[in-house]
Amino acid sequence: MKRFFKAIAAALALPLLLCCGCGIIPGQPDGDTETQNSKGFWRYTDTAMGTVIWQSIYAAGEDAAQKVSREIMDYLDNLEQEKLSWRLDTSEVYKINASAGSPEGYQASEEMASLLRRCKELYQQSDGAFDATLGPVVRLWNIDQWAAGGQTENFCPPSSQTLADALRKTGSDKLVIEETPSSSEQTIRTYVYIPQGTGIDLGAVGKGYALAEIRNLLEQNPEVTGAVISVGGSVLTYGEKPDGSSWKVGITDPFDTSATIGVLSLRGEWCVSTSGDYERYMEADGVRYHHILNPATGYPADSGVRSVTVLSKDGLLSDGLSTACFILGPEKGMELAVRYDAEVLFILDDGEVVMSEGMEGYYQ
Ligand code: AMP
Ligand code: MG
After folding, report:
1. Which stretches does DSSP call E strand in the chain?
2. C-alpha count within 13 angstroms, C-beta hemisphere, residue 1
3. pLDDT tens digits for 305-321?
4. pLDDT tens digit string along 213-231?
5. Does the C-beta of 22 come closer than 6 Å to ligand 1?
6. Which of 62, 170, 172, 300 has the maximum number of C-beta atoms within 10 A of its C-beta?
7. Half-sphere exposure in the Cβ direction for 251 (13 Å, CA)
8. Ligand 1 within 6 A of 130 CB?
9. Residue of minimum CA distance from atom 6 in ligand 1
10. Quick check: helix, strand or coil at residue 48?
11. pTM, rounded to two decimals
């Protein structure tokens, strides 16, 4: 584990194009959205899943870049509508939540069942710090209405009694995923059961999860030679730049979110996710409430951490671990990340930067 202080890190930081927790430095002159420069590089900015999507794509031609960019946007819209949204009645998460307490449960797609199994495992491995069943508590805080730079007006934190009541009903150990063989159809059906009062919220893993399919889409388009795709606080690096140099992903300085505290130099094979207390928050009576909740208390995590950045080949892991590590703090968080073969970097309350040994090779 390496520790050093913000002043040193800040001196090394470069000006970056920022995007939530992670910024992108494609190594090319900034172009207007959807314009080509001479090096076959295109950049697209759009919104999906309630967040900004930045795409920086190197391709043999504009048609190829545009095609894959559109495919990525269509995929993200579908993922939200069909799988992840807690708000849209078309999504599986919505339907699971609507089935809470019913003995019939909800017959889930294989994809949803497998995603929930992985979330359950992360719950167990993180000693409950990451909990995909925290939906009702997230709703009590009304986090989806928050933005960075939270306003004080009309915001009233939930009472500790309300939170305690909601917490008694949540916990991923209560999420049951059962396979039922169907002899007539020779297929296996998977049912998901959650008790009344519990609700799935995949806000802490959804964006990172999307990166796996985005990587598949890029691979299916051989005219695309390299890309950096940022979905909210999760970034995928893919392929190579024409000059062979590494992709640069900036880490936002939580003390000055218009600046970066450091840069990761990466090959095109990584998923990088950042969870930071500056991403969504509200202030009331001089207290700052952020969006990463400790499932043990129902309140925003208070582990001495301002942000956590996790590097993994797997986007669900980078995203889920960044949330879990934020709650666990540097010691336990480091242990968890190492167990998953991930690299992790913590920025602490006092500006100290703490990182895993493997992260040192990527961080400047
Ligand atoms: P992230 O920005 O990836 O750390 O995810 C934060 C989002 O995940 C919040 O906006 C909530 O929707 C949800 N969330 C908050 N706390 C937790 C937690 N302890 N476990 C799982 N999801 C959480
Ligand atoms: Mg996360």
Report:
1. 2-5, 22-25, 41-48, 51-59, 106-108, 176-182, 187-193, 224-231, 234-239, 247-253, 256-266, 271-276, 281-284, 287-290, 305-312, 343-348, 352-355
2. 15
3. 999 999 999 999 999 99
4. 999 999 999 999 999 999 9
5. no
6. 170
7. 32
8. yes
9. 204
10. strand
11. 0.91
For atom 2 of ligand 1, which residue has the closest CA? Answer: 275
Single-letter amino acid, residue 26: P
Residue with CA nearest ligand 1 atom 18: 130
Angstrom distance (rounded) from CA 29 to CA 14:
15
Sheet containing 352-355: which strands, arranged edge to edge?
2-5, 352-355, 343-348, 305-312, 271-276, 234-239, 224-231, 51-59, 41-48
Q: Which atom of ligand 1 is nearest to the CA of 322?
A: 4
Q: Which of 11-15, 117-121, 232-236 has the lowest mean pLDDT?
A: 11-15
Query: Which amino acid makes up residue 332?
Result: K
Q: Distance, CA 181 to ligand 2 centroid (Å)?
A: 34
Largest CA distance in the chain: 67
* Number of the ligand 1 atom closest to the C-alpha atom of 280: 10
277 Cβ inside 6 Å of ligand 1:
no
- With a 6 Å cutoff on the Cβ, whether 91 touches ligand 1 is no
Nearest CA to ligand 1 atom 3: 204
d(Cα 67, Cα 75) in Å, to the nearest integer? 12
CA-294 nearest atom, ligand 1: 19
Instruction: Tell me the β-bridge partners of 59.
Output: 224
Residues in contact with 269: Cβ distance below 8 Å, sequence separation at least 6, in sequence order:
237, 238, 313
Any atom of ligand 1 within 6 Å of the Cβ of 274 = no
Inter-residue contact 52 to 218 (CB < 8 Å): no
